[in-house]
Amino acid sequence: MDDLEFRRRALIEPNCQDKGFIQKKNESTDNQKWVEAQQALEHQLTQAVLHVPIPERLSERIILQRTLTTDYRKQRQRPLWYALAASILLAMSVLFMALQPKSDVALNQLALAHVYEELIHLHEQQHKTTEHLNAMLKNYGGKVTDNIGVVNYLGACKIGNKLGIHMVLPATKSVVTVMMLPQIDTTEAHSFSDQRFQGRIMPTDKGSIVIVGEHGENLQTFQHYFAQHLTWQRS
Question: Do 113 and 177 have their domain in common?
Answer without folding.
Answer: yes
